[in-house]
Specification:
By secondary structure, this protein is α/β, with parallel strands linked by helices. The protein has twelve helices and 23 strands. The strands form seven sheets. Strands 3-2-1-7-19-18 form a six-stranded mixed sheet, with helices on both faces. Strands 11-10-9-15 form a four-stranded parallel sheet. Bound molecules: flavin-adenine dinucleotide. It comes from Actinokineospora iranica. One of its GO terms (molecular function) is NADH dehydrogenase (quinone) (non-electrogenic) activity.
């Protein structure tokens, strides 16, 4: 059991305290659903913003500024009087004492009491047991990842521009994206569009259209969750953009100079590329295992918690887990299940506080899936209605704008898109880190 501060206990004695861990899609929706309830709602996150992950690839490809997809939590919740924000990383849960353990930004630790706990800590990248690949093939999961990737991509073109040897230039102009799911497809398509349109006329010593964007996956198709006609359309469009698609090739190794793959016939292939991005796999947040340890709940082979039909942990009706870190009906790791579970859990908690009957088990309403391929093309499967090309892109843009948090961000994103469509240029072509001479040079 951990010690709690006096201040924490005093507040708990006044009103029940609901602690929500994680301000992503699920956690933030739960907090907003608790607006007006007579309780203290504490939202804990290790970053100070909500992140709209579906548009991360547009930050990584210099299209959107980071702030447009990452509103500050304090600003988002400024009008919700019963909610407060706490910047810290939750490292453990004591289910008997009803406390969460936190690391705070100043390096200190604290324990915080709860009456009800909602954990929505999402997922983390998975290298399938090859964590050593992370250095050479960073993931695109956080805002910091996307900004670092933007610098990496832009620096590769600067290095290519400086290279006098054609082979060296070709090497710098090769970008490999591992994983042909929605994230990999969107990133590969956008990188290709950036090099072919946005960089036009910007370089004197190279033709950016010669950039080679390679999309690698062990699966036999791009966008596996989508219907065959949409997958085929995506493959054709990516190839039209110049993306080289290598399916049925599993990554065997990644090092500083590139990627080695193995095909179905066990033949090995080498792609020389200093710029590799990992978009191949995720696993549940480590907090899922922590919660399982603390409560005796089970996890599946992806590390996701098995929760009761109302999203509570078995034997612990006061602890809920939602979103990417849970397996409830094996729903996909997408924003919509997390949002709907956050909404549901808020309803369950509200009804308990009001002494009303429970709203019953969680029921998922499948609103469809979509992925963008290029600036003018997207595929969408909305309850059987299959869209592609411009209609798909319009549906995609409408849904993404609707789900972005905050009107300012919606207007800002729309303005950035309009500017890029009209001019072909991107406003965020910024490498944050200056060039530094090696020590002693
Ligand atoms: C690049 C990318 C593109 C995507 N595109 C799409 C898409 O187009 N459509 C779609 O539906 N889905 C998409 N997804 C998936 C979607 O973003 C997730 O399914 C969704 O975010 C899950 O919501 P969540 O609330 O479970 O977790 P998240 O939204 O990931 O939120 C988890 C939060 O918990 C915080 N956190 C984690 N651990 C701790 C801790 N120990 N202490 C404190 N805070 C913690 C994190 O900082 C984060 O804010 C994409 C994901 C990525 C990475």
């Amino acid at each position: 059991m951990w010690e709690t501060s006096e201040q924490d206990r005093t507040v708990v004695q006044g009103r029940p305290r609901i602690v929500v861990v994680g301000a992503g899609f699920g956690g933030l929706r739960a907090v907003r659903g608790l607006r007006g309830v007579d309780a203290e709602v504490v939202l804990i996150d290790r970053v100070n913003h909500h992140l709209f992950q579906p548009l991360l690839y547009q930050v990584a490809t210099a299209l959107l500024p980071a702030g447009d997809i990452a509103p500050a939590l304090r600003s988002v919740l400024r009008k919700q009087d019963n909610a407060r924000v706490l910047l810290g990383e939750v490292t453990g849960v004591d289910a008997q004492a009803k406390t969460v353990r936190l690391s705070l930004p100043d390096g200190s630790t604290r324990a915080l009491d709860y009456d009800t706990l909602v954990v929505a800590a999402g997922s983390t990248d998975s290298y399938f047991g090859h964590d050593e690949w992370r250095t050479h093939a960073p993931p695109m999961k956080t805002l910091a990842n996307a900004v670092a990737l933007r610098s990496r991509l832009l620096r590769a073109f600067e290095n290519a521009a400086n290279a006098e040897d054609p082979d060296e230039r070709a090497r710098w102009l090769t970008i490999v994206v591992v994983g042909a799911g929605p994230t990999g497809v969107e990133l590969a398509g956008q990188v290709a569009a950036m090099t072919r349109r946005a960089f036009r006329r910007q370089f004197r010593t190279l033709d950016p259209r010669q950039a080679r964007v390679v999309l690698v996956d062990a699966a036999p198709a791009v966008l596996p969750p989508f219907a065959e006609p949409l997958r085929e359309h995506t493959r054709r469009e990516l190839e039209r953009l110049g993306v080289e698609i290598r399916l049925n090739e599993a990554v065997a190794d990644i090092d500083a100079d590139g990627v080695t793959t193995t095909d179905e016939d066990h033949m090995r292939h080498r792609i020389c590329a200093p710029t590799v991005v990992w978009a191949a796999g995720v696993k549940a947040s480590p907090l899922a295992a922590e919660l399982a340890k603390a409560t005796g709940a089970e996890v599946d082979r992806k590390g996701r918690l098995l929760v009761a039909p109302d999203c509570a942990l078995p034997g612990h009706p006061e602890i809920f887990a939602i979103g990417d870190m849970v397996n409830l009906g094996d729903l996909p790791g997408m924003a919509e299940p997390a949002l709907q579970q956050g909404h549901h859990v808020a309803k369950v908690i509200r009804s308990r506080l009001a002494g009303e009957p429970s709203p019953g088990p969680f029921r998922y309403l499948d609103l469809g899936t979509m992925a963008t391929i290029s600036p003018g093309d997207a595929v969408a499967d909305i309850r059987g209605l299959r869209l592609r090309g411009l209609p798909g892109k319009i549906a995609w843009a409408g849904v993404h704008l609707a789900f972005l948090v905050g009107w300012r961000n919606r207007v800002a994103v729309l303005a950035e898109w309009a500017w890029t469509i009209a001019t072909g240029r991107r406003t965020q072509q910024v490498i944050l880190e200056p060039v530094r001479s090696p020590p002693g040079s």
